[in-house]
Amino acid sequence: MDPLAHAHTPTKLKRSGLDDLPLTVKTPNYETDELTPGIVHIGLGNFHRAHQAWYIHQLMQQGLAQDWAIIGAGIRGYDASMREKLIAQDCLTTLIELDPSGMSAEVIGPMISYLPIETENAPLIRQMSDPAIRIVSLTVTEGGYYLDANTGAFDATHDDIRHDAEHPHHPRTAFGAIVAALRQRRDAGINPFTALSCDNLQGNGTILRNCVVGLARLSDPDLAEWINHNGAFPNSMVDCIVPATTDQVLSQCLALGIEDHAPVTHENFRQWVIEDDFCAGRPSWEQVGVTMTNNVHIYEAMKLRILNGGHQLLANVGEILNVPTISDCMQDPQISDFFVKVQRDEILPQVAPVPGTSPAQYLDLVARRFSNAAIHDTTRRVAFDGSSRHPGFLLPSLREALVTGSPIAGLALAAALWARMCAGTREDGTEIAPNDPIWSALHKTALVAKENPQAWIDQTGLYGELGQNRLFAQEFSHWLPAIWDRGCRAVIGSYLRSSSDL
């Protein structure tokens, strides 16, 4: 049934007005006063609300997890806008599921508060110090973990980290706030909480442990040892395609009969795999489809390399050719063939199967999801922060292919397409607006690389030692000038005809 057929004058989203929403909209069957907090989530954006919060909501709908309500938190000034919108609607969110067969809406309410955003994070530290908080989860993006680009280790020299080490009671980072809260808990005789990363990083729990413990060690080695010994940092893998909220999404929500100023659209697919390692209890997530395991690595490797890596294969060429969305890229026969060939020839051979799914089966699933035209996921959103996403999602496959002797021409071409995109213009002459935290440096290098391709892969902060690999340098230095001289389509056509010979 199409919910739009039953839409009426929009109802302002408030807990007191849930009964006034259209009958086609699913609403919470639990009351706010039944809930007590158990989770603080830092970096509360669209993905968290469509994914982790949805799982907690499903448990609450069953009368479970009433003591695991979520308190939202942010650490940057731009989080204040999201806080204002959500507080105004009692922290409720409308989730709009977009599927080729139709659209449906659900209002979820596991979030009960959103902390004020303050420079030194006092409200956040105070809340995380509360013994009721047993999990602190994060979505702070792949590039938000202060990692050394060459080694992947915690970067203790970063200005933000040095500030927090020198001013541990007045931190500016999420990790500094976590350390400050754990210090207060230790001093008060309260056990630590579990810190749960939900970002797209392989070994994200291990990385989070290294950041928190590494930062604590700079100012209080005894605290660092206490955290490392008593705390928990489970690895996890998250998956759901969640586009940015646009004016079109706001209009869709109004058409459904809901006045929500921060609705979220998502696909009809979710997956969450978590290492079952918690130091202060956890919700019974397995009852709502979460995979609890002690071998997250194989799941995350498959997802990060095939899905997230595949996103980069599509988004960069899509931006250069002004193809608006990921589904549009999949409908373009040449771009889609490029995506499939790089995956099958160069990425899948480096990916191990997971229980019940082979890499080839997972690729087929990803291709169907990417082809969902109801999901208006822009190439610009997916191409954002390539300086984190290429090293995290494509280069691991490249490194392993070089070791195993597998083909690398398509992965080298993907790197060349990214370099071409960072030059800042499309082939139709329109501008590609800055789209990376280090865009200025990327743009400058991309222009130099037009005449000297090696300059691009000599960016050791991105490529490490790969730029000195003879085979990769040869392939890359063939593709990038060819893209500039002949255009993307001619070059991709050449790759599709013969991916292993220059």
Automatic annotation (TrEMBL):
Alphabetically ordered keywords of this record: Oxidoreductase
Enzyme class: oxidoreductase
Coiled coil: none
Domain Mannitol dehydrogenase C-terminal: 295-484
Gene3D superfamilies: N-(1-d-carboxylethyl)-l-norvaline Dehydrogenase, domain 2, NAD(P)-binding Rossmann-like Domain
Mannitol dehydrogenase N-terminal domain location: 38-286
GO function term, MF aspect, one: mannitol 2-dehydrogenase activity
Highest rank taxon of the organism: Bacteria
TM helices/strands, residue ranges: none
EC code(s) of this entry: 1.1.1.67
PANTHER family assigned to the protein according to its UniProt record, in alphabetical order: MANNITOL DEHYDROGENASE 2-RELATED (PTHR43362:SF1), MANNITOL DEHYDROGENASE DSF1-RELATED (PTHR43362)
This protein's name: Mannitol 2-dehydrogenase
Source organism (scientific name): Ruegeria meonggei
